[in-house]
Write a structure and sequence with these properties.
mainly beta, 2 helices, 11 strands, elongated
Length: 180
């Protein structure tokens, strides 16, 4: 049976965050680590890409579970956890110092904290009307663009006769020497 559960209020007993209290967000029992809210904070710089701007994320990294103690609800100090069988025959967790029954509350998911990212509301950004018109005119290609260029340049590019000339009249006589 696990002594630490998600939702427990714990106090950090060693490390750079010694003395801080927080709620257990996640218990990683396979690797014997826990994630505590607002303890062991890390900063991750996410580069920008085509779909989103760059940002700085702050998140909680895990710490070893031997570095935390459950907070005793009666004395508000760190305590070890024990087990006792209640009247119904179930094992319940108790605080060793005071004998109080420990009840884990539901942990709220940690919200990612964004730093140095300007937040704009919908009222600040006025929606702009979409510009009507073909996209290719903006890009500068197509028949209309070619006609406009011809007018501007004054060239006779499109005014020349580019028709295919009629085939020469077929000669009925044999005037060539090959194959005859």
């Amino acid at each position: 049976m696990k002594k630490l559960r998600t939702g427990d209020t714990v106090v950090v007993i060693t490390g750079k965050d010694k003395g801080k209290t927080g709620v257990l967000l996640k218990v990683l029992s396979l690797i014997q680590r826990v994630v505590v809210a607002d303890v062991n904070m890390r900063t991750r710089h996410v580069p920008k890409n085509a779909s989103r701007p760059g940002q700085i994320l702050k998140y909680e990294a895990s710490i070893h579970w031997s570095n935390v103690m459950v907070l005793d609800p009666k004395t508000k100090r760190g305590t070890r956890v024990g087990f006792r069988i209640d009247e119904k025959g179930k094992a319940v967790r108790i605080a060793r110092k005071s004998g109080e029954v420990l009840v884990a509350s539901k942990a709220q998911p940690a919200k990612k904290k964004l730093a140095a990212v300007p937040q704009t509301t919908a009222s600040e950004k006025a929606p702009q009307a979409a510009k009507k018109g073909p996209f290719w005119k903006k890009l500068g290609f197509g028949a209309a663009e070619m006609a406009e260029r011809a007018e501007v340049e004054g060239s006779t590019h499109m005014q020349e006769d580019h028709t295919v000339p009629d085939q020469l009249e077929r000669q009925t006589g044999r005037s060539h020497s090959r194959g005859s």
